[in-house]
């Protein structure tokens, strides 16, 4: 019965496509109603593709998979066939809603109350996708298709269903597919929720790199009353960790805060009070700025560990996984257009920031200049996730202005 209801919902939405170019709320609501919790798609990509086709986009739904991972549904849609190609990137997948009793209503209802749109994905980031689609709709309504523009170009959307997951079969593979097709993206805006308090207070022009490490120290198990017959790995682990966190990695740079080292877990797998365990493991995360690369961080860790253990025979294993490298799109044309458009709509001058976690911009930065701007993120991933409907409307106007300025539309010429 659940599946029948799900398919009925998808069919109902797809059979009633009627999105006014000045009303992104309806599209946001219908996207929220499709519970596309990673790696599930639940019709979200198909819905988006159907709407974009009505605007003249050529849509490619691409499904990628790899060993031991889930198949992910992705979308690349393009309006026009000339360069420059202005791209909006985002994701239709969302994190789980959590316990239903934590919500005041169905987390996938997309209902509106007191001027706020509620539901999982409202902030992160289905409403931003809807805002951009409606902005493009307004552009084509006023200026026609790209073939009629004074300055030729294209608008595209690169949408994944794997941003909240392992990010293996999503944006990264879609970009590789585009590269093989010799499809070029000239500039990109990612619609992640970048604002901390109010719409217009922050643009992300870069992100810190992220490195996860697991440090395991092997010892010799034994009785706590006879430590000379054992080797306590916990003592060595504590000393090594102290050496890793004692000296700051740096003091920050012009566009980045100081790099941070945070221990997230220590585990020895031992509940007995009279047993020295055989091993001890610590997990940690390093967020690093543009003074470092993941490789330079790895070398620094090895150096500090070697200095900590000195001449002692300590058996340890260090495993490192890199989530993303640090990147920066220096202030310039893209950020200036965004600042001007944001100020035009909201009256605010946004801060250029590199704070926060990782996003799919870490993959896009290898192909073109990229910046991030979306809605307010105060409630993302929380129960009762919501955004102001007025913010969604304003964001669509900002995106409209950005497109206008990017392609140098002059109203007098139309």
Structure description:
By secondary structure, the chain is of the alpha+beta class. The protein has ten helices and 19 strands. It has a six-stranded mixed sheet with strand order 1-2-6-3-7-18, sandwiched between helices. Strands 12-14-10-15 form a four-stranded antiparallel sheet, with helices on one face. Helix 6 packs across helix 7 (294-309) and helix 8 (333-346) packs across helix 10. The mean pLDDT is 93.
Number of strands: 19
Helix content: 25-40%
Task: Identify the strand order in the major beta sheet.
Answer: 1-2-6-3-7-18
Q: What is the CA-based Rg, rounded?
A: 25 Å
User: What overall geometry do the principal axes of the alpha carbons give?
Assistant: elongated
**What portion of residues belong to β-strands?**
15-25%
Terminal Cα separation, in Å? Answer: 53 Å
Mean pLDDT: 93
Structural class: alpha+beta
The H-and-E topology, N to C, reads as HHHEEEEEHEHEEEEEHEEEHEEHEHEEH
- Count the helices. How many? 10
Poorly predicted regions? none
Largest sheet features: 6 strands, mixed
């Amino acid at each position: 019965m659940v599946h029948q209801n799900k398919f009925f919902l998808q069919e109902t939405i797809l059979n009633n496509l009627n999105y006014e170019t000045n009303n992104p709320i309806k599209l946001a609501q219908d996207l929220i109603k499709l519970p596309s919790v990673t790696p599930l798609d639940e019709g979200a990509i198909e819905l988006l593709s159907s709407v974009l086709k009505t605007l003249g986009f050529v849509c490619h739904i691409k499904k990628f998979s790899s060993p031991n991972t889930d198949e992910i549904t992705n979308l690349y849609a393009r309006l026009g066939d000339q360069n420059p190609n202005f791209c909006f990137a985002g994701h239709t997948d969302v994190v789980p809603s959590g316990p239903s009793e934590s919500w005041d209503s169905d987390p996938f209802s997309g209902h509106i109350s007191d001027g706020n749109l509620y539901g999982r994905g409202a902030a992160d980031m289905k409403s931003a996708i809807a805002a951009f689609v409606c902005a493009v709709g307004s552009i084509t309504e006023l200026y026609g298709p790209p073939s009629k523009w004074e300055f030729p170009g294209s608008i595209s959307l690169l949408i994944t269903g794997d941003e909240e997951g392992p990010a293996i079969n999503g944006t990264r593979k879609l970009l590789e597919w585009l590269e093989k097709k010799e499809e070029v993206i000239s500039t990109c805006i990612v619609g992640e929720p970048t604002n901390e308090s109010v719409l217009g207070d922050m643009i992300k022009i870069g992100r810190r790199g992220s490195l996860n490490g697991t440090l395991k120290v092997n010892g010799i198990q034994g009785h706590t009353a006879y430590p000379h017959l054992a080797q306590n790995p916990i003592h060595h682990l504590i000393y090594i960790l102290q050496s890793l966190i004692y000296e700051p990695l740096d003091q920050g740079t012009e566009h980045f805060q100081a790099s941070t080292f945070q221990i997230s877990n220590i585990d020895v797998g031992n509940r007995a009070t009279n047993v020295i365990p055989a091993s001890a493991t610590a997990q940690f995360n390093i967020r690093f700025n543009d003074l470092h690369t993941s490789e330079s961080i790895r070398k620094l860790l090895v150096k500090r560990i070697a200095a900590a253990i000195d001449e002692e025979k300590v058996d340890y294993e260090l495993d490192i996984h890199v989530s993303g490298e640090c990147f920066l799109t220096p202030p310039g044309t893209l950020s200036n257009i965004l600042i001007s458009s944001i100020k035009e709509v909201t009256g605010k001058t946004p801060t250029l920031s590199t704070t926060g976690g990782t996003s799919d911009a870490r993959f896009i930065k290898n192909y073109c200049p990229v910046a991030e701007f979306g809605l307010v993120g105060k409630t993302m991933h929380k129960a009762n996730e919501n955004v102001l409907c007025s913010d969604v409307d304003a964001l669509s106007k900002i995106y409209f202005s950005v497109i206008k300025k990017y392609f140098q539309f002059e109203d007098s010429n139309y």
